[in-house]
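Hey, can you fold this one?
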Amino acid sequence: MKIKTALMGAVASLALAPMAFADAHEGERGRHGQLNIIYWQAPSILNPYLSGGTKDLESASMIVEPLARYNETGALVPYLAEEIPTVANGGVSEDLTSITWKLKSGLLWSDGSAVTSADVVFTAAYCMDPEGGCAQLSKFDGVENVEAIDDLTVKVTFDSAKPNPYGPFAGAQSPIIQAAQFADCMGAKAPECTDANFGPIGTGPFVVTDFRTNDVIQMAANENYRVEGQPAFATVTFKGGGDATAAGRAVMETGEFDYAWNMQLAPDVLASMAEGGVGTPISAFGTLVERLEMNLTNPSSDLPEGERSTVMHPHPFLSEFDVRHALSMAIDRELLVEVGYGQAGRPTCNLVPGPEIYASTDNTGCLTQDIEGAKALLEGAGWVDSNGDGIREKDGVELRILYQTSTNAVRQDFQALIKEWWGEIGVETELRNLDASVFFGGDPGSPDTFQKFYADVEMYANNFDGTDPQAYLSMYRCGNEPKPSSQWQGENINRFCDPAYDALIDELGATADIGARGDLMRRMNDMLTKNTMTIVPLVDRGRVSAKANTLGGVVLNTWDSELWNVAEWYRTGN
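Sure. Predicted structure:
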């Protein structure tokens, strides 16, 4: 069977690799005392199904876990599951319409109760509830049914052949939550369950002892964690907020913290910090792309609340391809990399920069800045500066942009440069930067979240876990946009909708041949970027974080949560 053979070849790379860098100093759980982690974007919630923010997903990954994770090479490895299901071992059906997972026996929740297949079934129902506004709904794309075969066996059935069946329950974005704790939190009630959302009962190495939202999380070792002697740390302080500069200094200069996430700092600044001698920057490339999202809907405050930034009202000028194209043409991506990332960045026109099989090779037109070409494009489309004030207009509409992002030194440098370039082509730009904890927080009551998108253009970075971008690209299906009826949750941030794109999502879901899948995903990437420029990629960012020189076991992972193996971290004593 051709499809079966292709799938077996695809999962051959998902070798069940052993966990790397196990603590050589074996002993009792909690033997190394206190661990201090700092994320300059403060967690707002510990329920990954109610937030797409990286800081929320990664802090939660210390507490709640999926059936399988992606390791530092992108290989899928079992966590709560006994093994990775494949066609070869009988876990994936030959027609590719189902996958059967087996839980490890003896798993306990942190409250001491047994983990069963009922919890897995509940997790799917929780996310797939149409009134719940699940931030990770694309992980369950095509899922028809999830059923418990017995206490330790779960079968996921898809509505058609699913060549990549590892969406549900794999990676930090799709962990298992406890049915008993979240039973009364279904649908529209999901955001109201504060106790559960801020202090989930989990299977991970740590449990929450105190959570001050947008500030600090206190954790303690999970006494019911399944691996003897892990975690090595008894307690954790997870500090959020501030900025990348302060976080980097706290690890590499003062030694107040052991680990700092996302050192989005200029290369010379990182080098200077490392001279402090107590910490070291660590880096790796993955799929993290800093991009501009163009709002295809009207964010004007003149519209009634509930109608702003919804598909009810197209954007007055960003709905035009020529305007979006001109804005992209005006940007010097090489200079952005030089200013912001140095060797930890690469200019890109792709939303999906890797793995290589999925990266578009002919989408390179944005790499050369063309100010004069951008001017001519706008002029030809009828956008002219008729009154000499430096701002182009057409039919009474002026090219005035509100451009927002999170508060971050590199991002503010990018904003300043892009504003200057856009000014050269006749576009007036107002800059706004928001506290990262709020911007990425997902609070449906806040006007300042990236999901609500009450601006014309916004800038941020995200990526997909694992090595297959199907779920990531599926985010842009019609109807996946954040809106009032979904509690302003949803992954289609710029409100893109094209039936032809949706057809490619469906075709991809029924295609097993790896070469054909690569072709489809390159086409989808090009539709979002080169062909429509609703997403304007800027920089393929290498992940840079920092660790204390006394912290062992850290393996930087760009394919899953950075904290994926925090259970194996330990103090070296150096």
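The longest strand covers residues 279-294. Let me know if you want another pass with a different chain boundary.
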